[in-house]
From TrEMBL, chain A:
InterPro entries: Bact_Chemotaxis_CheA (IPR051315), CheA-like_dim (IPR004105), CheA-like_homodim_sf (IPR037006), CheW-like_dom_sf (IPR036061), CheW-lke_dom (IPR002545), HATPase_C_sf (IPR036890), HATPase_dom (IPR003594), His_kinase_dom (IPR005467). SMART domains: CheW (SM00260), H-kinase_dim (SM01231), HATPase_c (SM00387), HPT (SM00073). It is an enzyme of class 2 (transferase). This is Chemotaxis protein CheA. The lineage of its organism: Bacteria, Pseudomonadati, Pseudomonadota, Gammaproteobacteria, Alteromonadales. Residues 291-308 have a biased composition (Polar residues). It comes from Pseudoalteromonas luteoviolacea.
UniProtKB/TrEMBL annotation, chain B:
InterPro entries: STAS_dom (IPR002645), STAS_dom_sf (IPR036513). Residues 5-91 form the STAS domain. This is STAS domain-containing protein. It comes from Pseudoalteromonas luteoviolacea. PROSITE patterns: STAS. Signal peptide: none annotated. It comes from the Bacteria.
Amino acid sequence: MSIDLSSAIATFVTESKELLQEMENGLLDLESESSEEHTSEIINALFRAIHTIKGSAGIFDFEHVVTLTHIAETLLESARNGELQLDKDLISLYLETRDATEILITLAAAETEPDQDLLNKVNHLVGCFSKYIDAESSNPDEGISAAKASGNLLDNQRWIVFFVPNENVLRNGLDPYSFIHYLDSETQDLKVSTWFDAMFGPQQFDPESNYLSFILSFNTDKTEEEIKDVFEFILGEAHVAILPPHGDADVLKSSIQKYQDIDFVTNALKQADPALADIIELLSQKKETTNTELAGTSPNPPTAANTSKIHKSKTLRVEALKLDRLIDQVGEMVITGARTNLLAHETGNETLIEAMALLERLVENIRDSSLKLRMVQIGETFNKFKRVVRDIADELGKQVDLTIIGAETELDKTFVEKVSDPLMHIVRNAIDHGIEDPETRRAQGKPEQGQLTLKAYHDSGSIVIEVSDDGKGLDQERILKRAVDRGLVSANQTLQEKDINLLIFEPGFSTAESITNISGRGVGMDVVKRNIDSLRGSVEVESLPGQGSTILIRLPLTLSIIDGFMFEVHKENYVIPLDTVVECLELHEVVSEQDIQDKSYINLRTEVLPFIRLRTLFGIEEQIDHTRESLVIVQFGTLRAGLVVDSLKGEFQTVVKPLGRLFEGLKCISGATILGSGNVAIILDVSALIKSAISVYEALEKKH
Amino acid sequence: MSECFKFPSELTIYEVQETFNEIKSYISDKESVSFDFSDTTEVDSAGLQLIIWVVYHSQKIGLKIDAISTNELIEKRCKKLGVGMSAPQND
């Protein structure tokens, strides 16, 4: 009977990716961590991540993953014991290992063999780790004396051997029992504990694979070297660690990692030598806290700061598709609710109308709760940039410090996924073109280390993501010149500063003198703009020469169900997001008909407010009486404008339905929704409407 | 009393795969089983591992073990490894 492991492998891949991400964050934190306590906690977390991946990969026979993680884990053990300092070179080595492991896991899960390049890379990494390990173990006497000096010795009276033959040992013609038999003949009172539970694991038992591992204890007057000679022929195919009487605790610590069952280890040690009671006690305590944390002998209890490094919340993993389906169904419920409400009102039955109102409130609550299910913190995405910033800065010989603000800000998972790539382009550009090299910065009286800030916050129904740097800022003169050269604007056209800044988002635009690996091809910033537009968001650029730039991305809170505000234009219903509505007024109460003739703005409480008549925008020639027109004042970011409509309908729960490709080119329209009556209402893009109103106003102003 | 599965005289890395296949087919349609290792006079780690597997696996999947006939060699080796082989009790 074979067991279908595909779902277990899929879980393994997901979990490993999370562990690898944690590992990357930990490694990057290590670079800036000065507290010894936190460093040790991070190293422990790294060790657990690698150990878990290795263990799981072993279950699925992902040989390359096991090889790489095993050696990475071995060296980390030295760092864990305080024998090795994780410097920048080693952190880079572990970061490369993290990347290679991720690729190996993905390939192994897809049952694809890694190509030669990847294998070379893995071999290179293994070689690098081996060099460190060899250097660590080149002088064993030093280790012993160091252990003695530190008093890290055990109380064992008997010899103990940890003997873990590898999986292929039987196929390779070696018989572990024969070594035990020989040891028995060379020593006195040999006791053996055998662990064989691995053969009852999820994979089918293969009689030619070895599943046995042993802990042996005995008395002898032979030397350690002579005992080692007993295992000489199997040393390359097994973990053999010898613990002489009063042996080094580190041997024990590193060896028990090789066994998968802490209960077995404690029982075997208990049987091997009662003098090990203390260490057994410690292992039993450790077992209660964690199964993987076997080797820590540090008496320090975890502090609050330690625990905060690893965020463990009670979570439930749910397939994204199931959530999408739930939100679709909630959307349908909202639409049907509106229809039922309409019918209830038609009956005039007060009790029914009241019951419907209650039901509608409940539906609203369900809608909000289900939308919240899709909300994730942006911190996860921001954290990925720590690595990007580090790598790019290193590559360009620049020094950049990344500051993250508002990591806890929540936004829809769809946005997180889609905003990640645009942010990547912006961050790359900021480091490549914005932040100067250390010499230039020093010459300009700036600190050598440049500052890059990623900031997220909520602002009037939108999520704002800011990427700012303290670099040289945008060179508007050059941007304008390049735009004229490329025919994006005409030479005699005068543009405002903010419009010049926005030219960097035009396709094929780049002012970079040289094209680097990082940026400069002008491919990317236009994609940034397009991606943000597709999310109904907007991009703004602020820049001060010599002081830096800020790119501001503004996104709506959600894409699927919104609180809308409905109005009518020429007997058709239109909806805009309620968050964008500032106030509603009767037009004739604000301004007389004569005052706005041929004008595109009104004077609203001494403020100039550009407005747009939706009848005009939609090409409806028939006009209605001025006294019947209403004015809806809307705001998006810092921009504000008025929309002149026929009549107001009020708040409306809006389930956003995308429009077909036919409508893709239409500006000012972002979707549609179905009303309770079954009619369709168009959802308008407020950002585009405001921009349109402002450009009409500016064009008319220029004429005058 | 169930039909008994008799292990070969040699149970080493060279025989374990074939014996394993026979055992699987033997236990597949049984509710109670009996194993006879008494004729096995040559056994290595692979053979010992298979013996451990068949006894413990049968127990794990809920088969009733009626009898285990063993011999001095197997008993001695299992004892040396600290593995109990006298018919484990089903829960």
